[in-house]
Amino acid sequence: MSLALSLPIPSEAAQLALFAPYCGGRSREADLKRALRLVAKGSLKGRRPLEGGRAHSFTLSWQGASSPLEMCTCQLGFPDIQAPKYTFDVSMHQLVEWLMTWPDLGDQGDLPNHFWSWLLLGSEEQVDDA
Fold first, then answer.
1. pLDDT given at position 51
2. H or E element: which one contains 39?
3. Between 47 and which of 7, 15, 55, 96 could a Cys-Cys bridge form, CB atoms 3.0 to 4.6 Å apart?
4. Would residue 10 be called left, alpha or beta, if left means φ above 0 and alpha means ψ between -120 and 50 degrees?
5. Longest dimension (CA), the chain
6. Which of 57, 49, 61, 56 is nearest to 99 (CA)?
7. Dihedral (C-alpha) 25, 60, 110, 106: value to the nearest 10 degrees?
8. In what helix (H) or strand (E) does residue 36 lie, and over which residues does it extend?
9. What is the C-alpha separation between 84 and 124, in angstroms, rounded?
10. Which tens digit of pLDDT belongs to each residue from 66-83?
11. Spans of the chain, pLDDT less than 50
12. Is 71 in contact with 91 (CB distance < 8 Å)?
């Protein structure tokens, strides 16, 4: 018989201290707090704007990590179109950095351009967000 060990969820202050060195330091604390709240949800829904005023809806979910250097598994899907789901592993601090650009309003935000470049082209270069 095996017992699963359940660790307590760190406080917001502890999470801030843990992630700040990887995510812009204390100068971006408000963005980091918002991103950590999103991380706790485990998923989000957004819209990627296209030319001509159109947009693709997407869902992004993640699991499997709680500290900055741990890898988490993410899944990205496009529910309105027949597109494959993308599954990828990234460090938790990378996911948090992407989520730091998410708007306060919750759903229907977009991920930064460098996320889409990384996902679709494998580009590690930063792309200016418009």
1. 86
2. helix 29-41
3. 55
4. beta
5. 59
6. 61
7. -80
8. helix 29-41
9. 22
10. 889 999 999 999 998 887
11. 1-2, 125-130
12. yes
